Amino acid sequence: VPEDASDSFCKTQKAFKMANPSYGKTIKPGEIKSAASQAASRGVRAWLNFQMYRLNRWQRSSNPFLKASDWDKCQDNLNLATFAGEPVGLGIDLSKTRDATAVSTVFKDANDDDTYYQFIKMWMLKAYAEDHASEADFLGWGEAGDIELVEGEEIGLDHVANYLEYLDETFDVRRVGYDPYLVRALQPIFDERKWGDDVTVPFPQQVKFFAVPTGEYERLLIAGRLMHEGNSCLTWQAGHVETASDANNNKRPIKPKNQEFKKIDGIVAGIMGLWAIQNADPIVSDWYEDNELESA
User: Fold this and answer.
1) Please, are residues 214 and 35 in contact by the beta-carbon 8 Å criterion?
2) Is the pLDDT of residue 173 over 70?
3) If pLDDT is split at 50, 70 and 90, which confidence band does 287 have?
4) Are 224 and 73 a contacting pair, CB within 8 Å?
5) CB-CB contact of 199 with 176 (8 Å)
6) Which of 42, 65, 133, 228 is least surrounded, with the fewest CB atoms within 10 Å of its CB?
7) HSE of 127 in the Cβ direction (CA atoms, 13 Å)?
8) Residue 62 carries which DSSP code?
9) Which residues of 120-143 are buried (b: 16+ CB within 10 A; e: fewer)?
10) E strand map for 99-254
């Protein structure tokens, strides 16, 4: 739902349908109408939360990172398959249970060194999505194909392995950024793909590693040069992702405080993927030395 939509519009069936792909299917019209009425009656905070998480209407966070207008102008009718054979950078943000697992693929425009295209693949436990269906439209996004809902108690690595195999066979994978905390889980997958240290690079979840690519992610969005396909779950994450800064104003993406269900895994993976394609050619050791990376 647009930022400039009126409160009265946000209480209409048209707004409910616009923001919820599964409206009338897994989401019953009466339930969301009732939720809207209850939220409005509980006060401003409850009503704003309803609009953000049930109508995908952006609200400013306490430490806003991205603007809805910048995100919207970068949405385009993209198709991942059209980039077959092109150089790509990957960002991998793994989870097992409560968070989503995300793999971002980022391409540089062949004719413009300052324009990029990002795609996202995300997985979430179906049980988690069901338990938190009243807080965000995880089930609707799953039905729409914007996130894959997984049966069981944890997101198995086979999902990631199969997707990385597809990416490896379809595109020219130049660099892969990943959280070294989970290297033991990922290394067998990397070995199977024959991706050595020249391709896979640990990307610790610390501000000094996020600072430059986070700034680049924001700059490119503002400039209208970081295009995306309009994945609804990723757009939802872009609406509430915040940043934490150090003394030098270096930033890294974080969740809003005390709001565990507000996922940002797709944005985190996207920043890592952007770093990967922008650093697909330089010698990796230089980056290690500059950042004083310790062995995982």
Assistant:
1) no
2) yes
3) very low
4) yes
5) yes
6) 42
7) 8
8) S
9) bbbbbbbebbeebbeebbbbbbbb
10) 101-108, 116-125, 148-150, 172-178, 200-202, 226-228, 242-245, 251-254
